[in-house]
Specification:
Blueprint (H helix, E strand, L loop, with lengths): L2 H22 L9 H4 L29 H5 L3 H4 L23 H12 L11 H4 L23 H5 L4 H7 L33 H6 L11 E2 L1 H5 L48 H4 L15 E2 L14
Antiparallel strand pairs: 1-2
Length: about 300
Amino acid sequence: MNALVKVLLLASLLAAGNVFGQAARQDKVLKGDAQCTRCHDETEEYPVLAIGKTKHGTIADGRTPTCTSCHGESNLHVNRPPDAKERPKPDVTFSKASKTPMEQRTAACLSCHQGGNRIQWQMSAHASRDVSCTSCHQVHTGHDKVRDKVTQTETCFNCHKEQRVQVNRPSHHPIIEGKMSCSSCHNVHGGNPKQLVRDSVTETCFTCHMEKRGPFVHSHPPVQEDCAICHQPHGTTIANLLKARPPFLCQECHSHTSHPSQAAGLPTGRTTSNTLLGAVGRGCLSCHTNIHGSNSTQNSATSGRFRR
């Protein structure tokens, strides 16, 4: 084989090597991810490439981010210094063991997702307790549990363990049945004290329980003030999500007039005295059936007693 043939053969091999090298460095999921996916491929324990199955992997959308949009340029991570014992971490990391400040991690998400029902995130209870977006959301996985009504509660209950117990009590909203989720009532990105979807407890409850809204001729003040005065919305052992059984719940407020507090029992003789009949049957709602509000127009001193 003469020298010219050797030179041509070597040149062909080098060209082929460059072609194969470029093919190996082609983007796999996101635009410009070639330098990342040469190491972070399908062998990763964490499903990095699964981001292609999410909204963040829709490359036809001009808003779709790149790896560096969230993790920063990370030059030291990509080009490991020769004297480094371990490869430096990316500029921004999101794992539980991450040393990146919460504000910086959240800022990476809010650079695109600031607005809408997340506009008050910075003043929310979650933000003030150093909860970041990735504390709840799985960005790279095709199925983000917290955005699925059936599995959302698993994420919330990791912190809200008291509410986990309450929703498993006999009287509860249909959360564990999958008909509701925490976000049905709560805007976890919101800024009001209980992070509700509306401005108050009553307004939130009225989105479903509209028949309790009124207006009524005779209004029961607790109904207009706060439903949680009488009800525990996450769950109780008493019917209708009540905090206590009547008459004891009612007598927390109505203990000084009409039916004074008394031990349950039967009167000793024939009587029409409210003092002796107050706890008979142990059910205020037996008579006061329209407890949320009454439209009685009867011209009577007792027309506002929420009776039928």
